[in-house]
Amino acid sequence: MTAPTLETKYVFTITACIGDVVTAGETGIGVRRIIPIIGGEVRGAITGKVLPFGADFQTIRPNELIDLEARYAFETDDGAIVYVENKGLRFGPVELLQKLKRGEPVDPTLIYFRTVPKFETGHEKYRWLMQHIFVASAARHADRVVIDVHQVV
């Protein structure tokens, strides 16, 4: 017997609006940055709004590899609250990553930005989010992060 083939299907896009970056400085393992999540929207198989709290906690390694861990929540249009933990990494040419840090535009296809979002909710309609694995491809812009979420089927 063989294992099932892995496939993914697009489910929804989270656009997380972000605030000003707070830097805690060099911690010995890299530069710690905290980026507030101040709102946004969810569009696709689920629709709703990103709630105005939470943050992306980043560690920028000496080679500019960025470890990310975002924690936030969204509310669906029908009132369900969904908690999100989204871990991943961003990497690319150093000069392009430095442009992103300065808030300058960079073609998202030139940056490797992938995450693994996990969801929690007590709302029965959305329990399926807790029963599957998801992967995402993301793009960083000056004022937002756009995350295309795919379900592993």
TrEMBL record:
PANTHER family: UPF0311 PROTEIN BLR7842 (PTHR37315). Signal peptide: none annotated. It comes from the Bacteria. This is UPF0311 protein GPL20_16510. NCBIfam families: PRK00872.1-1 (NF002045). It comes from Bradyrhizobium cajani. Belongs to the UPF0311 family. InterPro entries: UPF0311.
